[in-house]
Amino acid sequence: MERVKACALAELNEGQCRVVKHGYEYIAVIKKNDELHAINDTCPHMGGSLGTGWMTDEGTIVCPWHGWEFRLKDGEGVWPSGIKVETYPVQVDDDVIYVLMDDAKK
Ligand code: FES
Question: Of 7, 32, 39, 67, whose CB neighbour count within 10 A is largest?
Fold first, then answer.
């Protein structure tokens, strides 16, 4: 596992998102309902940036292009169902947010 630095904990307020690049992947790091999440930023439909979409109080993120919706905690598709976006563990160390990435995904 590789730790990818996202930002300082104080830089990410409730309902905000930071997009982090790791190799060829973009990861949306999100604080919602006082929890931190990391989800692949690229929508599996046509590649919209999920991090530029909007979040719901139910803990989902909605793609700004055509409205596909995914749960932040596990990436499961709410609409449509049966589609999943990859999620990643998040770690806070010394007030810095890190995403834990598989080395092979670089
Ligand atoms: S690109 Fe995300 S819903 Fe179409």
Answer: 39
Q: Is the pLDDT of residue 59 over 70?
A: yes
Residue to mutate, 26, 49, 68, 79, ligand 1, most ligand atoms under 8 Å from C-beta? 68
Element (H, E) at 12: none
Length of the chain: 106
Domain ranges of the chain: 2-105
pTM: 0.93
Best substitution site from 39, 63, 83 to test ligand 1's pocket, by max atoms within 8 Å of Cβ? Answer: 63
pLDDT of residue 95: 97
CATH architecture for residues 2-105? 3-layer Sandwich (2.102)
Report the atom number in ligand 1 closest to the C-alpha of 64. 2
